[in-house]
Amino acid sequence: MLFCAKIYCLAFLFTSSGQYAHYVFNSIDLDRNGSLSFEEFVANLSILLRGTVDEKLQWTFSLYDINGDGCITKEEMKEIVTAIYELMGKVPEGCEEEQAIKEKVERLFEKMDRNCDGMITLDEFIECCTKDESIRRSIAVFDTIF
């Protein structure tokens, strides 16, 4: 059974979540063929529902690492943050919204980019997230769903 990207995006047709849905789909489409196999679906669902904190953070990192090169750039972070704003109905249309997104990305990089090289590695991401109580709580929410 294959689940295509177009069908996945149709599930979000009447929301402003199309771009976020695209990024989520790409992060779970492990072989990047544009379709989800049952195995890909189950593997990702298993991580999100029953995975360890590190596994969930690795999955989240892969969502933010849009091009899959093993690091998150400011541009990738900006794209994901923008997609999250759109998902929440805060469509960035003006200079004020764009500036808010840019500032959010800068704050995240100040916090996560430990060696200040302009990229966030998986190790930096996990280290920062595991030390942040609010992030740990938000990940723990998935533990109580099922």
TrEMBL record:
Record's signal peptide: 1-21
Classification via Gene3D superfamilies: EF-hand
The UniProt record lists the keyword Zinc-finger: no
Domain EF-hand: 16-51, 52-87, 100-135
Alphabetical UniProt keywords: Calcium, Metal-binding, Repeat, Signal
Pfam families noted in UniProt: EF-hand_5 (PF13202), EF-hand_7 (PF13499)
An example molecular function term from Gene Ontology annotations: calcium ion binding
PANTHER family xref list: CALCIUM BINDING PROTEINS, EF-HAND DOMAIN-CONTAINING PROTEIN
Name under which the protein is recorded: AGAP009626-PA-like protein
Upper lineage: Eukaryota, Metazoa, Ecdysozoa, Arthropoda, Hexapoda
